[in-house]
Amino acid sequence: MAVLELINVTGGYTRKPVIRDLNFTIGQGELVGLIGLNGAGKSTTIKHIIGTLIPQQGEIKINGITLKEDIDNYRSSFSYIPETPVLYDELTLKEHLELTGMAYGLDEKTMKERASRLLSEFRMEKRLNWFPSHFSKGMRQKVMIMCAFLVNPHLYIIDEPFVGLDPLGIQSLLDQMDEKKREGASVLMSTHILSTAEKHCDRIILLHDGRVRAQGTMNDLRRAFNMPNATLDDLYIAMTKEQDNE
Ligand SMILES: Nc1ncnc2c1ncn2[C@@H]1O[C@H](COP(=O)(O)OP(=O)(O)OP(=O)(O)O)[C@@H](O)[C@H]1O
């Protein structure tokens, strides 16, 4: 069974849809990249998956259930890392981790063990008592990432994770994603960093003007565009040119 399933999903902010008739699935242990131009609908797709927008048509299932069928189960099945970090100004890093652990029902021992590994991985051990106002942009991003991985869900939804992270932070995030994948978790990640997506994603979904233009492995995409040796950059530019020719 697919971990995440979008079936004929159409939706947006007003009656005029921004995403149209989206169909894709993510299986257990898969890392799937959501790629497209600015305004293609990546964040809007993610907002529908996490339940801040409700599809106008179609359904979204996580582990076979829709948000409407079981809201608590649906919400506790995934972690979401937003493009722009959202932190509580009055809570320290330690308190952010504790609050997340409590909200997801982790026992204290598990929470402390996981937090300690993450703090070391992201080199944030010395900042446990800092407040968000003292963090750099990358550090704020790391707090969100650590909270997401602390929960250890079936599915990670990550919106443009690499902007603002230094190269060591990017490597730590990729290592964490690889480790979770090996343990059977699934990841949907939107990004404009195409070389990283090409190297790390099992499959790619190319969004164009709110629709899926092509999806699959790099070889599937090369076939879809009839470009046998293309990189993801080449395919992306080809998709842009299709837009220009319309
Ligand atoms: N809050 C909103 N209200 C109305 N329209 C919106 C809102 N947010 C985004 N849109 C519109 O939805 C469309 C898709 O935007 P979206 O943010 O999903 O694109 P994206 O692929 O994530 O782009 P980017 O790469 O720039 O982050 C755009 O036309 C945008 O103007």
From TrEMBL:
Pfam families: ABC_tran. Residues 4-234 form the ABC transporter domain. This is ABC-2 type transport system ATP-binding protein. The keyword Membrane does not apply. Keywords: ATP-binding, Nucleotide-binding, Transport. It comes from Ureibacillus acetophenoni. InterPro entries: AAA+_ATPase (IPR003593), ABC_transporter-like_ATP-bd (IPR003439), ABC_Transporter_VariousFunc (IPR051782), P-loop_NTPase (IPR027417). GO terms for molecular function: ATP binding; ATP hydrolysis activity.
